[in-house]
Automatic annotation (TrEMBL):
It comes from the Eukaryota. The lineage of its organism: Eukaryota, Viridiplantae, Chlorophyta, core chlorophytes, Chlorophyceae. Residues 103-113 have a biased composition (Polar residues). The keyword Ligase applies. This is Glutamyl-tRNA(Gln) amidotransferase subunit A, chloroplastic/mitochondrial. The active site is at K52, S127, S151. The gene is GATA. GO terms for cellular component: chloroplast stroma; glutamyl-tRNA(Gln) amidotransferase complex; mitochondrion. Belongs to the amidase family. GatA subfamily.
Length: 463
C-alpha cells in the first residue's frame, strides 16, 4: 500500500532519493513468517518506515544528499537502523535532504528539491524535508530524521507532523553521517505522539560504538503515555509549569504563528498546566554561536571526502593535489563549500579565539540559561514557535543564505544545550493569508535532559 502511494505521489512530492520496494516486501514477508512461526513481535514489526539518507543502511545506497556519496552503499547499519531492523520494521527507502544536513528547505539537496505536500509550490523545510514530506504525504507510516540545529523540528512544523529531537546522547550516532558531531541527533518523525514514542523506544539506548551515547536505560516511552493521561482526569497537566519564551514571540514572528502559539498556551492551561512567560536574555546569541560551531565541526568532519579514502573520485586528476581539489570541487555543492570555507576560517590560527572559543563560551551561557529555566521548582518545559514563519515558496530564500540561517533562530539553542524538544501540529495559517492554501503550524516544547518521557506525556495530553 505504501509502495503504491509512493508510485502515485512521489513524482510530485519527491520525498525519496532511493526506494527499495523489493527489499521492503522481503522484509514484510519475513515478518509474516516470524509471526506464522509463533514468534511474538513488538509494535514496530511490519511497520513501513522511511530513513533519512544520511543514516547508513546496509546494502542500500546512502548519499547524505551529496554527489560525493552518489555511489556509497554502506556495508553496515547505523545502530538506530539495526535496532529497527531487529524489531521487524520495514524500510521503504531513503529520504531526500539538504546535502550533509546543511540547509533548512531541502533545496540544497544535490538530487532534487522536495515539495511540501500541503502546497507543491512550497518547501517542506529541512534538512529532513524528505522524511517530513513522506510522512505528511502518507508515503510511509513514520520516518527517521536527524537534527543538528532544527532539521527534524522545522520540517515537522512546515509539514504538519510530530517531530522529536531527543537529548544529545539518547540515540546512538553510530552510522549517522556527521555534520556537526557535538550537535547531531537522530530522532523520530511521525503522525502522532504515540508513534513518535514507539519509534524512539525502538532506537534509544547506549551503544558501545558511540562514546557520546548515554548508558542511561531507555524507558518504554509509549507505555507511559496512556497511564499518565488516565491518572490526570480532565486536567491531565495539573501541576505542570510551562514557560513561554518571551524572546521567541512578537517582533519578527508571523502574526499567525504568534497567535497559534498563544492559543496553544491557552489550551495547555485548559488541560491544567500553568503557563508563564520566561525570559532567556542570551537567547539571540545562540544563532551566531551555532553557525560558528556547526561550520567549524563540519569543516573538520568533511575533510574525509578526499576521493581516496571516502567519496567519489575525480576521474581526470593528473596529480594528488588535483585529485583532492577535483574530487571535492566536483562532488560537493555550493552551500557545503561555503560552510567548509567559513568553518576553516573560524578555526584558523589567529581567529580561533575570536570566533570558535567565543562561540563555545556563548554555548555554555545559552545552555546554563535554558537548564536553569528548566530547573527544579521552575518550568517543566519551555514553549515557543518552531520558526518565525510557516512554509515558504521554493526559491524564496535559496539565493540568500543569511535569510535562510535566520530562520533557525528558535531551534538551534536546543542543540547547543543538548536538550530534547518535541514539535506538535497546533493549527494552520488561514488560507486567505497565504494565497489560497492552509499551511500547518507546529509548536515546540523543550524538556529537561533525558526527560523524553515527560515531554511525550505533555504532547500526548495536548493532542
Ligand atoms: N538549518 C540548520 C543548518 O543548516 C540545521 C540543519 C540541521 O539540523 N541539520 O545548519
Amino acid at each position: 500500500q505504501y509502495l503504491d502511494a509512493i508510485a502515485k505521489t512521489d513524482s510530485t512530492v519527491c520525498s525519496y532519493i532511493t526506494v527499495d520496494g523489493e527489499q521492503a516486501l522481503a522484509q514484510a514477508r519475513a515478518v509474516d513468517a516470524r509471526i506464522a512461526a509463533g514468534e511474538t513481535l513488538g509494535p514496530l514489526a511490519g511497520v513501513p518506515l522511511a530513513i533519512k539518507d544520511n543514516i547508513c543502511t546496509s546494502g542500500t545506497r546512502t548519499t547524505a544528499g551529496s554527489q560525493i556519496l552518489r555511489d556509497y552503499v554502506p556495508t553496515f547499519d547505523a545502530t538506530a537502523v539495526s535496532r529497527l531492523r531487529g524489531a521487524g520494521a520495514v524500510f521503504l527507502g531513503k529520504t531526500n535532504m539538504d546535502e550533509f544536513g546543511m540547509g533548512s528547505s531541502t533545496e540544497n539537496s544535490s538530487y532534487k528539491p522536495t515539495r511540501n505536500p500541503w502546497d507543491a509550490e512550497r518547501v517542506p523545510g529541512g534538512s529532513s524535508g524528505g522524511s517530513a514530506a513522506a510522512v505528511a504525504a502518507h508515503e510511509c507510516a513514520a520516518a527517521l530524521g536527524s537534527d543538528t540545529g532544527g532539521s527534524i523540528r522545522q520540517p515537522a512544523h512546515f509539514c504538519g507532523i510530530v517531530g522529536l529531537k531527543p537529548t544529545y546522547g539518547r540515540v546512538s550516532r553510530y552510522g549517522l553521517i556527521s555534520y556537526a558531531s557535538s550537535l547531531d541527533c537522530i530522532g523520530p518523525m511521525a503522525h502522532t505522539v504515540e508513534d513518535a514514542a514507539l519509534l524512539l523506544g525502538g532506537i534509544a539506548g547506549g551503544d558501545s560504538h558511540d562514546a557520546t551515547s548515554s548508558g542511561r536505560p531507555a524507558v518504554d516511552y509509549a507505555a507511559g503515555l496512556a497511564s499518565g493521561l488516565a491518572a490526570g482526569g480532565s486536567r491531565p497537566l495539573a501541576g505542570k509549569r510551562i514557560g513561554l519564551v518571551a524572546q521567541t514571540m512578537g517582533e519578527g514572528v508571523a502574526p499567525a504563528i504568534d497567535a497559534a502559539v498563544r492559543a496553544a498556551a491557552r489550551h495547555l492551561e485548559s488541560l491544567g498546566a500553568t503557563v508563564e512567560e520566561v525570559s532567556l536574555p542570551t537567547f539571540g546569541q545562540g544563532l551566531p554561536a551555532y553557525y560558528v560551531l556547526a561550520l567549524s565541526e563540519a569543516s573538520s568532519n568533511l575533510s574525509r571526502y578526499d576521493g581516496v579514502r571516502y567519496g567519489a573520485r575525480s576521474p581526470a586528476a593528473a596529480d594528488l593535489a588535483a585529485l583532492f581539489s577535483g574530487s571535492r570541487g566536483e562532488g560537493l555543492g555550493g552551500e557545503v563549500k561555503r560552510r567548509i570555507l567559513m568553518g576553516t576560517y573560524a578555526l584558523s590560527a589567529g581567529y580561533y579565539d575570536a570566533y570558535y572559543k567565543r562561540a563555545q563560551q556563548v554555548r555554555t551561557l545559552v545552555q546554563q540559561e535554558m537548564v536553569a529555566a528548566l530547573g527544579a521548582g521552575r518550568c517543566d518545559a519551555l514553549l515557543s514557535p518552531v520558526a518565525p514563519s510557516a512554509a515558504y515558496r521554493l526559491g524564496e530564500k535559496s539565493s540568500d543564505p543569511l535569510a535562510m540561517y535566520k530562520g533557525d533562530l528558535m531551534t538551534v539553542n536546543v542543540n547547543l544545550a543538548g536538550l530534547p524538544a518535541l514539535v506538535l501540529p497546533t493549527g494552520f495559517v488561514p488560507a486567505s493569508a497565504e494565497g489560497g492554501v492552509e499551511l500547518p503550524i507546529g509548536l515546540q516544547l523543550v524538556g529537561r535532559a533525558f526527560d523524553e518521557a515527560g515531554l511525550l506525556g505533555l504532547g500526548y495530553a495536548y493532542e
